[in-house]
């Protein structure tokens, strides 16, 4: 089985700053990864490379079997679904939720023609329903709450039926009920056989949905630990990652931690 994502000795340097240092990482088809680390650890940089929006300074990256630098990235991008705050900023304020989802089929934001294919619209309606956003179709994106926005963004990310889904802090800014609802939906989705390979960035242990299988812990651009979630998400690895004495608790599939 070839890896969906393969980083080999990847470093990213900007001026004198090393955003990523010698990161090697392999994400396989049925895996659901969490990427976790403190502010500035390099998580977004990692995701920008995985989404083919940024090239590493050194090292090689293979996405969906294609080596970055040796392939037309425009052809690869529909196979990668991304939901991030950066992407949300590209959606026009007055864009309706339905249009924000359908337009992903054309790899762009903004309604660019009067009538979408019926097929595309049906798919967008189904995805919005699956993510609990059926009542939001004709609402302008800017008027949506943070939780509603995240669900529309996820539906958008899935519009092209991607093989790889990248979620950058989908639960950021949600209240407790909103977070729990989204985490439950992500858990169900992660368990589904039709779901693509998933990578989700988060700062918070409470946001790790059930059925996520692997974790990468990053600090200052370096991998502290990576591997299967249960073995890798240990108190000691988290203490190193966040440079803080911690007490880690697990209840069923959910995690939380406190400073000691
Ligand atoms: N173009 C750039 N030039 C210099 N430094 C940069 C550049 N882009 C990012 N950085 C720095 O690289 C580091 C990693 O940034 P990155 O956004 O990947 O971290 P992050 O883990 O996603 O952080 P956060 O959790 O706060 O979103 C940060 O210290 C950031 O200030």
TrEMBL record:
Keyword Nucleotide-binding attributed: yes
Domain spans labelled ABC transporter: 5-245
Organism: Galactobacter caseinivorans
Coiled coil residues, start to end: none
Keywords: ATP-binding, Nucleotide-binding
InterPro entries the record matches: AAA+_ATPase, ABC_transporter-like_ATP-bd, P-loop_NTPase
PROSITE patterns associated with the record: ABC_TRANSPORTER_2 (PS50893)
Protein name: ABC transporter ATP-binding protein
The keyword ATP-binding is assigned to this record: yes
UniProt-recorded Gene Ontology molecular function terms: ATP binding; ATP hydrolysis activity
């Amino acid at each position: 089985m070839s890896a969906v994502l393969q980083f080999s000795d990847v470093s990213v340097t900007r001026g004198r700053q090393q955003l990523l240092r010698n990161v090697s990482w392999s994400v396989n088809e049925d895996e659901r990864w969490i990427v976790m680390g403190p502010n500035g650890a390099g998580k977004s940089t990692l995701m920008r490379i995985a989404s083919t929006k940024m090239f590493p300074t050194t090292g090689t990256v293979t996405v969906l079997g294609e080596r970055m630098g040796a392939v037309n990235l425009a052809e690869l991008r529909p196979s990668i679904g991304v939901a991030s705050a950066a992407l949300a900023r590209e959606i026009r304020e007055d864009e309706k939720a339905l249009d924000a989802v359908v337009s992903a089929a054309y790899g762009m934001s903004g309604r660019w023609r009067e009538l979408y294919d019926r097929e595309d619209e049906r798919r967008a309606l189904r995805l919005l329903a699956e993510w609990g956003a059926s009542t939001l179709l004709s609402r302008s994106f800017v008027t949506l709450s943070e939780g509603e926005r995240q669900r529309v963004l996820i539906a958008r990310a899935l519009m092209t039926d991607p093989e790889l889904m990248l979620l950058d802090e989908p639960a950021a800014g949600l209240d407790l009920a909103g977070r729990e609802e989204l985490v439950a939906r992500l858990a169900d989705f992660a368990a589904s056989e039709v779901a693509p390979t998933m990578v989700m960035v988060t700062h918070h242990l409470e946001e790790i949905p059930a059925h996520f299988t692997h974790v990468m812990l990053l600090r200052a651009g370096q991998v502290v630990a990576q591997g299967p979630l249960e073995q890798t998400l240990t108190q000691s690895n988290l203490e190193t990652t966040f440079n803080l004495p911690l007490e880690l608790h697990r209840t069923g599939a959910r995690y939380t931690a406190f400073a000691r």
